[in-house]
User: Fold these one by one.
Assistant:
Number 1:
Amino acid sequence: MKLLNQKVCDIDAAVADIPEGATIMVGGFGSPGTPFALLDALLASGQRNLTLIKNDANEPGIGIGKLIEAGRVKRLITSHLGLNRTAIEAMNAGEMQVTFHPQGLLAEKIRCAGVGHGGFLTDIGLGTEIAEGRHEIDIKGCTWAIEPALQADVALVHAERADRYGNLIYRATASNFNPLMAMAAERVIAQTYRIDEPGDLPIDTIHTPCAFISHVVQVDRASSQQGVRPHDL
Amino acid sequence: MISDQQRMLTRAAREVIDGQIVNLGIGLPTRLFHYLPDDMNVLVHSENGVLGCRPRQAGEAPDIDMIDSGGTYITTRPGASVFDSATSFAMIRRSRVDVTFMGAFEVDQEGNLANWKIPGKFSPGIGGAMELAQKVARLVVLCSHNDKHGNPKILTRCQLPLTASRCVSRIITEKAVMDVTPEGLEVVEIAEGLSVEALRETTDAPLLIDESRLGRF
């Protein structure tokens, strides 16, 4: 783990030593909370055979969609690809393996890794196709399925604000998987619009304590504009 | 002239009780949003991590950090909160969401629901549907009575992979409002101008109908 006073770094340096074949968690539900600038830096950095863990595949041409289209993603662990037809095509063509989990189980598998547990017991999906291959146990007459925790080598997360020790604050629905992933990887790289001095963030508004964070990278607010969707009223 | 979908949504809005927490699935149920009166004490939950969604008002600029689970830019109402995905699904699994409205490919007389996968044709992943279907206290299906080829969607037994078994409480289509009961599907309301025979012809599941008590909508 990085020392508290050595976490702020340049974005390219932050992603440069992610190895080929790494397993990488990526925050975000759709666009909000997606670390777009870190993903662009990862694309430029060139690592291949990646396993990505993200709730969804963003949309064609943005976020992890760019990495998938560049053939850099060997495997995707996700809950839903509905908004990304190119990801569905890559899956159907066998160019990318996809593992689906129900969304709340995906979140909980990540949360479990983040709190240092090996897994949890659930009744979600018992008797359905999702349950195939899971271990089940009986406790006091109830059947439960065992869901192992899901760890990663690296997590890329997005926060609205941070301080240079790595305390993080998320905003609105840009929170989603970010605080869970920020605890669940060996190395956690946080991008943020603004890096304050320690003591500047009100201590009772911090969502992720700095202990979990390895690197803090300042990014331009404009980097998130690629995630803005056309919209109607 | 009011469309079938507007009629279904108007009818579905009457399912929501003042004071409830409500989840709206992708597709037609999302539009129910616009049918819930502002003065009701209702909080709309969206599984990406918000309780208390409200549609954006005309002219209100979108906040790019504020979407619902369908990706639409939203805003919030007084009493709203935002939270992470684990907390969002804790609310669902602990049945703290009172009612959810979902679409369906198939639903059957036992209340089994299939709405996430058509093997070989459509498999984008289940998202949050499984946990919502299994755990929310009351699940109302809001779907067309027949598919685009005219085939029945209200079946004796679902054929597609299930989202959850025995999870549906009520089904609202453009043709009828049906309750799942231990005896089978009971029609409680039928569309204005539709005959009981015409309803049975377009439905695969056997229907329990007491014409003396049948409402119209």
Note: The domain at 4-216 of chain B is CATH 3.40.1080.10 (Glutaconate Coenzyme A-transferase).
Number 2:
Amino acid sequence: MSNVPGNLRYAKSHEWVKIEADGTATVGISDYAQNSLGDITYVQLPKVGAALKAGETFGVVESVKAASDLYAPVGGTVVATNAALDAAPETVNGAPYEGGWIMKLKVSNPADANALLDAAGYSKLTG
Amino acid sequence: MSELRRTPLRDFHAAHGGRLVDFAGWEMPVQYRSILEEHKAVRRAAGLFDVSHMGEVDVRGPEAGKFLNHLVTNDVAKLFPGRALYSPMCYPSGGVVDDLLVYMRGPEDYFLCINAGNIDKDLAWMREQAAGFNVVITDRSSDYALLAVQGPKAAAIVQSLADAKLDAVKYYHFTEGTVAGVKCLISRTGYTGEDGFELYHAAADAPKLAEALLAAGAPHGLELAGLGARDSLRLEAGYPLYGHEITEDISPLAAGLGWTVKLDKGVDFVGRAALAAQKKEGLKQKIVFFKTGDRRIVRAETPVLDSAGATVGRVVSGTLSPLLNEAIGSAVVTAAAVDQPLKVDIRGAHVNLQLVKPPFVELKKTS
């Protein structure tokens, strides 16, 4: 039902990550997650420069219904955040894999990604 | 877990993409498309709400009016056939049993609308209070369905399907007539702060009426709206919700509903002595409404702090105003705290509360 792009990796806590060849990673929340949360009203972004371990909380996504912690799917240093979400958090609802990205990391340990689900595994989890 | 109760429109909701959740033991749509978009549609054009979970009660008999004036804090004697009244119903302590609408159909014939979560409690309370009055109380909750059409286009939409002239039905008045061929009690009331109607009708007719309203409303911009939007609309309008701004422990006076407490209506009523004492001695706690200038929602049960960081109350309702794009809410605080700077802690950040006299937005309610 929900959109699960095949080129991404997914955490069981519903974040997606796209790891580039240059060792940077883009992180957001899945279509399933945005749909479950409903209207997203606020995204608390991490600080650029913050060092995150895999599984560490890095922010909060709030909907009308609830506030949910965000967990880093892989460890690394925050190199960019999506400041456009301050004014338009609903972008996470409309485009969770594109305009709704939340942060970019310089990945410290690419092997962290091995613990994540692929699209088939995540589809099974959320199906 | 006990089975959720369903309104006659449960399949209608599912067919139209409603997200069904447990609300006070009822399987109800919290949203269809988006709470924020449904909210804006009601302010801009119109929304259609199924509120069939609400309870309905007939109160009939030679002393029906006298009984109701004993039961509730507002003045039922001011009613005439075709007139509706909002009132709290209190305990002797001045705390609130429920808030309700009283419709006068005739001198010995009244109709009440009560909150879904309070139906059993209210009926037991009313029957207990009715001792000594020549009155018959009948629970009609499962006989009736209730659809609300709310918003600036509501009158045009309902009129297009109604046999009665709705211009003649002013705010807090009602008439009996047909809408899309369905016999209705057509009440010009609502819970959104907009003009609109609440249509009480036989449960079996609900799917037919809902489809007809949706079809007639679509060209006007009407959207289906769920309980999520209903809650944000009522909060933006500054209306109380039972269990939040009014409870067994928060009196109508504390809630800012003094206009519904008629201490001088000429007859004694349940809670009068306690409410008169509260008024004379001053309130210990008050409901305040606030906005924050920040998008982070201040959720119910968040402690309210004074400038020294001491807890002086708690948030009772909180959401994001889709029109203001900032957090709005209400809190119960000590009377002494009302004139002081107040703040809350949201995940370690202090956010100041700016107290506001509701409504939070300009409302176009007419009549």
Note: The two ends of chain A are 7 Å apart (CA to CA).
